[in-house]
Amino acid sequence: MKYSRLTKEQFEELHKEFINFLATQSITAEEWEDIKTNKPEVAEQELDVFSDLVWEGVLSKVTYIEHISPQQMHLFNLKDSHMHVIAVKLNTPIDLTTKEGFDWLRENLMDENVEFLQAKKDYSEDKHADKFKLIQQGGVITKGDLYKYLNKLIN
Question: Which InterPro entries did the record assign (predicted)?
Fold first, then answer.
């Protein structure tokens, strides 16, 4: 498996898609029940293949990822050939993961305790794996509103 298996909740959300996936392999509902009961290792493989297909689809479309920790924020714009990151670092004990901390940042963007950094990073040979790694490390897929706002502000 290239990425990670979808959670039980994600499988439930994608129930119809999973049925279609099984149908493309000519596996009926009865056959699927039989596989789960009598060949659990085959069922596990099918779940893994489906999970990877879903992740490939998601990762091919994702353009923005945000990672916010108490003292730092990393906003990624995932372009075709590279990623651009805007990093915001607080040199104060304000916690960006709280509403109060985020509100403070919004009102004090030009404060001397707020530091902005930018970087461009080329992808490795597997662009989707690079994106997936950001998500595994706590990044969240977004529409990029925060990235666009800060990009306009600092560039």
Answer: DUF6495
